[in-house]
Automatic annotation (TrEMBL):
Name of this protein: Orotidine 5'-phosphate decarboxylase
Keyword Ribonucleoprotein listed: no
UniProt pathway annotation: Pyrimidine metabolism; UMP biosynthesis via de novo pathway; UMP from orotate: step 2/2
Biological process according to GO: 'de novo' pyrimidine nucleobase biosynthetic process; 'de novo' UMP biosynthetic process
Amino acid sequence: MNYTALFEQIKKKKSFLCVGLDSDIAKIPAHLQQVADPVFEFNKAVIDATAGVTIAYKPNIAFYESRGVEGWQSLEKTVTYIRQQYPEIFLIADAKRGDIGNTSQMYAKAFLETLNFDAITVAPYMGEDSVTPFLQYPEKWVILLALTSNKGAFDFQFREDKGVKLYEAVLRKSQEWGDKQNMMYVVGATKAEMLGGIRDIVPDHFLLVPGVGAQGGSLQEVAKYGMNSHCGLIVNSSRGIIFADKTEQFAVRAGEEARKLQGEMEILLKEKGIL
Ligand SMILES: O=C(O)c1cc(=O)[nH]c(=O)n1[C@@H]1O[C@H](COP(=O)(O)O)[C@@H](O)[C@H]1O
């Protein structure tokens, strides 16, 4: 999917919501634990309840690969289901990969070709040759970790060299490898106040912003500092939507939580003059 198609979908759905499919089998409602593939059935119900107000899904690969072959099967079925039922959706593999060149090539093939995701999250710290293999696929995207939402972000990402913080160096240097048509950046909603400075470095790129919901980030703050004239934001919530309720009502409640966020997003898009 290209930049224009992504923006068109945001305008059509009046939403820049990404639902994170961090589908921890231990948290899936009891009544689904008896079926053949509980994680797929859970995902399917969540997807059907949220797809109307969602532009992207982001399965976090850890929750699938931790279950071995069965987990990969749940993941593959989930991707196929979304592709068949909701072809307009942007699909992000949250895999946080990155390795020497020939290994990255295989990671890229695994997620962008074999599993046919639109995008993959990539860690930048092994540098150019670890990132560029992911950029060889037309209309596919690298989502590079810039400023993450967790406490540990302060361990390295704020280290300064000649007045430039490490995450700022990542934003600047990586623009030599890709552009706004094939590269996005992860910026945590918990650090929304940093978004203004980030926008000075990457005014046009899309940012994937996790951390609203369970991690406490504010959607309004994210939009205030991070939204650009093409929206430029994909805001993720995982647990706050998919585990809003642990009973048979889980999908209904997931739909409600997603619509609540979409309603707030619609207001923000209108305020910015995008709708
Ligand atoms: O790359 C990510 O998506 C990511 C980066 C980051 O800085 N912080 C972060 O929480 N994430 C992911 O976003 C999701 C957040 O989940 P919730 O906190 O449940 O909404 C998880 O899948 C995290 O792995």
